[in-house]
Amino acid sequence: MKISVVTVCYNAADTIEKTMLSVLNQTYHDIEYIIIDGGSTDGTVEIIRKYADRIAYWVSEPDKGIYDAMNKGIKVATGEWINFMNAGDSFVNSNVLDRLMNFHKDGLILYGNIIRIFQSYRRRATGIRTSEPKTIDFVSDTIHHQASLINSSLFLKYGYYSLDYKLMSDWLFYYETVVRHDVPVQYMDIDVAYFQMDGASTIQCELYKKEKRNYLASRLGWDILLNLEELTRYRQCKLSRVALDCRLKLKDLFIVKVLSKYWFKWGKNR
């Protein structure tokens, strides 16, 4: 089965080659590599040209932002599966796509873990780690596009990434397909990609959170969303070493019972 790997970039001369090599050095036998550049002027295009004979398709032209560029990649992709490995990010090793496909049993979205790269250290991101995600999972987290393979048929059936948002359209695509349309997914406890923590999503994390909360509130209502957020915090505390302190902050067990009711009623929002 062919995998189309799409790299979106703009003025990424310092990082694009690392990303490209992590794709080009994969041992998986059937990869289509696509690069969508937003009209870079810093030498990015010259680096892309160095590897042009190993790239199935590339273009350098202005776009309307990251999701417009990702949509361009989807439209030219011919693979059964699509991965987005944007400039600065990279696969953890050369055989990770082989591992994902070898472990694949079912699901139209396959995903694993990402490792966040900071200036002085690395840390495995939380991410959604279940093959049956529910609304509450998407309240606090997401599936990371760097670590996922999306069956290309989903874009034809449910549409491309929305251009109405600056930073959360990939989260929205996963939420809409997985939670609202019951698209089957398969989570694999495999480290798939490194995520460089200096991109737009890091710098503008507050905007991302705001976009996501406003969307969820429009679908669920603020009362339900606030309760789900409280339940999420409780779940996180329960799993942490400071569980006792968190429990002390819950002044009455009645709160937990109320939140549990919302969990069962709205765990999979319809």
3D structure, described in words:
- By secondary structure, the protein is α/β, with parallel strands linked by helices.
- The chain has 2 domains: 3-209, Spore Coat Polysaccharide Biosynthesis Protein SpsA, Chain A; 221-266, no CATH class.
- It is built from 12 helices and 9 strands.
- Strands 1, 2, 3, 4, 5, 6, 7, 8 and 9 form a 9-stranded mixed beta sheet that branches.
- α9 (205-220) crosses α10, α10 runs antiparallel to α11 and α10 packs across α12 (253-266).
- The longest helix is centred in the last third of the chain and has 18 residues, at 222-239.
- Residues 240-245 have low confidence and may be disordered.
